[in-house]
Amino acid sequence: MSAARPTLPAALRDLRKSVVKEAAPTLARWKPDVAQESFADSASNLAHYLALRHHDLRDLQRELMRHGLSSLGRLESRVMLTLDTVESALGALLEGGKLPEDWPPTAEVFFRGEAQLRRNTLRLLGGAPESTQGRVLVTLSLEAAQDPAHVLKLAQLGADVMRINCAHDTPEDWAAMVANTRAAATATGRTIRVLMDLGGPKFRTGKVKRQPGERLRRGDRFRLVRDAAGFRPDPMIEAECLPPDVLAHLLVGTEVSFDDGNLGGVVAETAPDHVVVQVERTKLKGFKMQPERGLLFPRAELHLDPLTPRDLSDLDFVAQHADMVGFSFVRTAADIARLQDELAKRRTDWQQIGIVAKIESAPAVHNLPEIIVRAAGRQPFGVMIARGDLAVAIGFERLAEMQEEILWLCEAAHVPVIWATQVLEEMVKSGLPTRGEMTDAAMAGRAECVMLNKGPNVGEAILALRSLMQRMQEHQSKKTARLRALRSW
Fold first, then answer.
1. Are 341 and 465 part of one and the same domain?
2. Quick one: 416 and 476 in the same domain?
3. Which residues, other chains included, contact 277 with Cβ-Cβ below 8 Å and sequence gap of 6+?
4. Which domain holds residue 434?
5. What is the average pLDDT across 22-26?
6. Pick from 482, 481, 474, 410: which is nearest to 448 by CA?
7. How far is CA 400 from the centre of its chain?
8. How many other C-beta atoms lie within 10 A of the C-beta of residue 435?
9. For a pLDDT cut of 90, what percent of the chain falls above it?
10. For 41-63, what is each residue's pLDDT tens digit?
11. Are 308 and 455 part of one and the same domain?
12. What whole-number distance in Å separates Cα of residue 232 and Cα of residue 249?
């Protein structure tokens, strides 16, 4: 005979005990990395959230809702406080228990996690202290180095953070961009942060051998070679891999992606000087292999240093001029520690510099809790959901699900999130948004910051994004629907 189902109060008490027990070893493991006392409560809440989400709560949620109580569906920033508050109410409702004298907790106590997230956002991204609206991050083009008026206009339109991509332009250009940003901040009376993205190890195609107009289609094979000098005279399409050393780490079955996922395949054969890739997916019209196309190996163990020699050189400039350093190709907490060590070599007050970890790979997703603790335990920290590469790394069908989970995890750690990649991309390029990207931008408002890429109509996109975020925050705060009065009916 099966055991009797526990009562609802007993089920909640059992859940609470399990969460505390399961979170304890995680907190003990994290303790050495929590160097800033201000992050201790956040680390504790994150550990309890992870423990909670290891349980399937769906049946419990429905029962709590039926009794007019919180379904626990919006407790990210206050795990134990929510469990305790609901447990007290449930005991009084169903077991005749007496409510504690401090029940319900004051608004200041109950919402302190949200307040901590706002403080962390202000510390990292700047902006008005009283503002609850998300920030707008704009990627600067070379025009920002040449024309101070261009940067001033971006600031006047509402850009809160200016991003400099170190993969492009020169230190002289970056210096001008930073100077023009500081001048624009002074002129507008606003706090405008500078984010400088390190390039990281990037893979791309070099020279290509193919017939004019020839395209790759599903089922086709082509060679990825170490050196274009080794191109063969046969009709198979060939592309040079840059840098070539990565080919030594590829095995049969390794996934390969080109040009932001426009072609995907697997390694079918390996040789000392090349690999043969079989195409598994691409557009119906086929894929035209060209030089300078981005390459990704989503699940390969490449054993690469996330800080290239170029990055270390660029970091000399970044450490002295940026408010935040964007860290590409981060995969583990050890990568964060590596960057922190390099920052410490360049500035005694390195803990004042923010880190923005770009989450763009499957290992980064898996290791995100440890990445957060190692970084936020020492300095201002934020997470960028780099949706372009992340979609390739985990599969396009999982992207929507995963960006939600990253948002939840970061909220539990009181860490701000930057929603990135192709937000209002068509509007930035052509001046007219698509319907889909307007919906995407509306969803992006749940993050603390939204990134726009450079383009001829970025000013109009800033205005549109700001207007949209302002309207949506009346309806939605993170996961919580806000029921303001409707006026359409």
1. yes
2. yes
3. 221, 222, 223, 224, 256, 265, 266, 267, 268
4. 124-200+304-481
5. 98
6. 410
7. 13
8. 7
9. 76
10. 999 999 999 999 999 999 999 99
11. yes
12. 22
